[in-house]
Design brief:
This protein is α/β, with parallel strands linked by helices. The protein contains 13 helices and 13 strands. The strands form three sheets. A seven-stranded mixed beta sheet has the order 3-2-4-5-6-12-11, with helices on both faces. Helix 6 links the parallel strand 7 and strand 8. Helix 5 runs parallel beside helix 6.
């Protein structure tokens, strides 16, 4: 396979979704801003993350946001954390708890973007600003930061076509999309389809419940059974966790040396890239995304405008003109591991190349 290191600059994204209502209709009468201005650095930020199966949330997002809030508030700011463990009802309860605890601002990465809308309104009614993090939550949110999710899907699709080369004309691929409850998953899928459609035959396609690797594994087993193992030339996987389940199914069927995509640059994913089991992942610079979320949250808690932080806006199905920052992404292959996740301090060479991965790292001159 040819390996390409492709840096993809995120473009300003205008999410063309139907909108009903605006941020101005959220019930903010100015009192909360006046109160926030008196807070100074002693702010309390609620952080709600969606699940703990994907390594990024506990390993990167949480500590990075905590660190940045401390930096921005002279160590006086507090982050109150809860993880919903992929349970939308639990996350709604966690919002209620945050409201009871009188946090100043919520940073919410929604399990289910629609199901969270009522809780977002509860928070706003209580005078609590809401930053949608990574996923565009519905309801009267005040700010949003994520990656350009359509570009993520395009990056994955382009890498898969690059890896397939002439095989794209002859065989079929399987598309393993993310959860239907995650708005990002649809955008990844749309981006991938915009690149793949007409260039390669899509033999089977799945929306994978809860992004779970075991569900991706079962879906892949079904695809192999339906299509035949000799007909599958590659797999579009929307993230690294699912790629792990997919590769397990491929190995069990005696299928190897076909490209599988991913996303999130999880350590296991990076190690699979080193060994050649996985072709690529999308590296999303979490430090930049986390820093922006913290900056937005602290500014809102202190009653400051977001003009200097957010230069763009997006529309959700319920809120128009949400101040937003979209962070660039990078296609991660064997060729640029050192220049991405190692350079940015996400992993060390020792972490990637320890134990059974040493010989594979030596082979690609990574160790």
């Amino acid at each position: 396979m040819r390996r390409a290191a492709v840096a993809v600059a995120a473009t300003a994204m205008a999410v063309s979704l139907a909108a009903c209502g605006s941020a101005k209709e959220s019930g903010d009468d100015g009192k909360s801003s006046e109160s926030a201005a008196k807070k100074g650095d002693a702010v309390k930020i609620g952080l709600l993350l969606p699940e703990n199966q994907t390594a990024r949330y506990e390993k990167f997002d949480k500590p990075l946001i905590e660190k940045k809030v401390k930096e921005l508030t002279n160590n006086k700011g507090e982050v109150v954390y809860a993880n919903a463990k992929q349970d939308a009802s639990l996350q709604n309860q966690q919002v209620d708890t945050m409201v009871t605890n009188k946090v100043d601002v919520l940073i919410v990465d929604a399990v289910d973007s629609k199901a969270i809308a009522g809780s977002v309104k509860k928070a706003k009614d209580a005078g609590i600003k809401v930053v949608a993090y990574d996923r565009l939550a519905e309801g009267p949110i005040d700010a949003y930061t994520s990656f350009d999710n359509v570009t993520v899907g395009k990056t994955q699709g382009e890498a898969l076509l690059e890896a397939l080369g002439d095989k794209a004309k002859d065989g079929q691929i399987v598309m393993m999309n993310g959860s239907a409850t995650d708005p990002n998953a649809k955008q990844f899928k749309d981006g991938a389809h915009s690149v793949l459609d007409g260039k390669v035959k899509i033999g089977r396609e799945y929306d994978t419940k809860e992004w779970k690797p075991e569900n991706a594994n079962a879906n892949m087993e079904g695809a192999i059974s339906a299509l035949g193992k000799d007909k599958i030339v590659g797999v579009y996987s929307a993230n690294d966790g699912m790629a792990g389940g997919i590769i397990t199914a491929l190995k069990a069927a005696g299928i190897d040396d076909i490209p599988v995509t991913g996303q999130d640059a999880e350590l296991n994913g990076v190690q699979r890239i080193v060994t050649g089991e996985q072709y690529m992942s999308v590296y999303k610079p979490y430090p930049q995304e986390a820093d922006v979320a913290a900056e937005m949250a602290v500014a809102l808690a202190q009653g400051k405008p977001l003009d200097s932080i957010a230069k763009d806006t997006v529309d959700s199905p319920t809120t128009k003109g949400v101040p937003s920052v979209l962070v660039p992404v990078v296609s991660l292959t064997q060729d640029n591991i050192k220049d991405t996740v190692v350079k940015d301090g996400i992993y060390t060479i020792d972490e990637i190349c320890g134990g059974k991965y040493k010989s594979a790292c030596d082979k690609i001159k990574l160790s």
